[in-house]
TrEMBL record:
Keywords: Hydrolase, Manganese, Metal-binding. This is Amidohydrolase. The keyword Manganese applies. PANTHER family: CLAN MH, FAMILY M20, PEPTIDASE T-LIKE METALLOPEPTIDASE (PTHR11014:SF169), PEPTIDASE M20 FAMILY MEMBER (PTHR11014). Its cofactor is Mn(2+). Transmembrane segments: none annotated. Mn(2+) binds at residues 99, 101, 134, 160, 355. The lineage of its organism: Bacteria, Pseudomonadati, Pseudomonadota, Alphaproteobacteria, Hyphomicrobiales. One of its GO terms (molecular function) is metal ion binding. The Mn(2+) ion enhances activity. Residues 182-280 form the Peptidase M20 dimerisation domain. InterPro entries: Amidohydrolase, Bact_exopeptidase_dim_dom, Peptidase_M20, Peptidase_M20_dimer.
Amino acid sequence: MELTNQDIEDLVAFRRDLHRFPEISNEEKETAERVVAFLADTGADEMLTGLGGHGVALVYDSGKPGPTLLFRAELDALPIAEISDIPHRSTIEGKGHMCGHDGHMAILAALGRLFGRQRPASGRVVLMYQPAEETGDGAAGVTADPRYALIRPDFAFSLHNLPGTPLGHVRLREGVVNCASRGLRITLNGRTAHSSMPESGVSPMLAVSRLMPRLAALGGGSFDSDEFSMATVTHLRMGEPVFGVAPGHAEIRVTLRTRQDARMEGLCTAAEAMAREEAKAEGLQCTFDYHEIFVASLNEPEAAALLAAALDAENVPHDEEELPMRASEDFGIFGHTSKSAMLYLGSGVDRPNLHNPDYDFPDELIAIGARIFMRTARDLLG
């Protein structure tokens, strides 16, 4: 089965419509509704909405025994103002599809059209439109939803577009492809004072000045090794923006990163111990909380081999260059309950980088991505 010229026109229009109306993580209500409306006439055998937030899952069931395959796309955009002058630029102030999730959604919509016309010969295909990938909440929320048990897959597949890689060229390997990461917020509390008498208060200034470079030096190990770890200080807030008050409060945010989940606990423990030490030295109270928690994404060997076979069958060039990546991706959660793999589809050497304010997903990738996933599904299910 192949997409028709009309399909391609409709899918491009759908992708651009999504681009015009971006919604950020956990706010994707209208985006989910657009997905449901576009795929309504494909006759999915089952549709689940509100999964783990605004998630949508469409099931195309052969009615015959066989494995369940899940293909995942993301619903969310980013809190980034678009600066391009393309006709379909964002109409929402301060928000934009600067990561190409609009294109990923269109690729899955192409699968919906094809499976709507002809079910797989065996098993089931699930199209998963997942919320909140950018914050790390989405995959965890979807898989924790009790209804996920109804569609729990044997295999889960996903893709991400990748600027800097030739258009249509794929990066794929088994094993680690994206790092684990989590955001640590360190809060230091002392006591404010008049700025003319700072000695009468308890200031976090000295603790902060020592702690930031110590945190940044926490990382270690070559990125080529599973011993790799990294700490990046991303934000500092101390006191109030006034001149008459010596600070009594500070907040440091640091992103912790490892190649393997097993290394993350040790990195967190080391960062917390370091903060407690500096807080104690200055008579401060110290607390911690964690945000945007991503597990490592690992491509299971059999799942990665299935994608590689589909790429070869479709004559799509591929290699392992640029993998693994330091960046994180919450698709790794699906690998905890199924054989999963993710590939990276080149969006052009001269394309702006992901999260740049002028990024736009190339429409040419919709058909290529759909071909890869359709071949994967047909190879497994017939």
